[in-house]
Amino acid sequence: MPFLGQDWRSPGQNWVKTEDGWKKTTKDETNNNVTDLKSKEEEYYKENLILSISCDVAAKKRKKDLLNNSTKIPYFHRDKWIYVHKGSTKERHGYCTLGEAFNRLDFCSAIKDTRRFNYVVRLLELIAKSQLPSLSGVAQKNYMNILERVVQKVLEDQQNVRPIKELLQTLYVSLCSLVQDMGKSVLVGNINIWVHRMENILQWQQQLDNIQINRPTTTGMTFLDLPASLQLNIMQRLSDGRDLVSLGQVCPDLSVLAEDRLLWKNLCQYHFTDRQIRKRLIVSDKGHLEWKKMYFKLCRCHPHKEQYADTLQFCTHCHILFWKDTNHPCTANNAESCCVPVSPQGFINLFKF
């Protein structure tokens, strides 16, 4: 039944709500409560002020560390496989981007694997040429961290120096054009950070130029001690003509073998099609084809045939991207028939919508 009489809290008296219910208070108690509330509010304000000041100091310190490049950005994910989805569905929202795939896949361990090293380097080079602005800020930081690891590995192992030099030069030229011509808006982060990273690239290039390859300390049989037929057989397995030229500069005997016409003919037929070769024929005064000159001329006009010991695989049934020696949760009856190798350019093309 509703209360219809005078307000039971009676005018002129103050009531305060407590855990036990409403209680009457006098004016003095009310004033004390008001002062207590004000003091608590002042203390709360002071605490928030101190916290905000400390947060500002921490933010300034982080910014200073980033400008000095003294903080190391961690490697974010080391997933063995990722699901590549290009659109939103009822089961999945969003889509997978190039930067997300670059962050999540285990490229850090791939650098240490000699079978995958050239694959990762080629992928870094393709990203440096045209895809760097499309990466998120996190992916751009991760890119520079992986690049730093690659350079450190080359300096320690003293191997694969030339492709890393080409990668650094390509990246430096791309960054110069992005910073100067297109403006800093295409690169995520402070412009001073990217200037510092460009200085690091120049420093890495200088370190690679000053690298001195140490002679092996073993006293056993070397490449020069082998018969000429075995030396020629080994040279036939080289897939880059620049390696043949470098090998021919070791000694006069290898220089003669490096000029073998059959070596350069096999290189031309391996990397280029018959139609491409017919358009670039070079005949010597004696009527012979100059296969060595044709090879380098074809290299300037057409891309090389890419060859990698291990690549990423893409399952057309599950739309999963994974490394070749790792399993993925495939639901197909014959999982091997659904998996196709993915080249570095194919990896980038997967995320073009």
Automatic annotation (TrEMBL):
GO terms for biological process: protein ubiquitination. It is found in: Cytoplasm; Nucleus. Residues 17-30 have a biased composition (Basic and acidic residues). Residues 220-267 form the F-box domain. It comes from the Eukaryota. One of its GO terms (cellular component) is SCF ubiquitin ligase complex. Residues 1-31 are annotated as: Disordered. It holds the Pfam family F-box-like. Keywords: Cytoplasm, Nucleus, Ubl conjugation pathway. The keyword Nucleus applies. The keyword Repeat does not apply. Pathway: Protein modification; protein ubiquitination. PROSITE patterns: FBOX. Part of the SCF (SKP1-CUL1-F-box) E3 ubiquitin-protein ligase complex SCF(FBXO32) formed of CUL1, SKP1, RBX1 and FBXO32. Substrate recognition component of a SCF (SKP1-CUL1-F-box protein) E3 ubiquitin-protein ligase complex which mediates the ubiquitination and subsequent proteasomal degradation of target proteins. Probably recognizes and binds to phosphorylated target proteins during skeletal muscle atrophy. Recognizes TERF1. This is F-box only protein 32. The lineage of its organism: Eukaryota, Metazoa, Chordata, Craniata, Vertebrata. The gene is fbxo32.
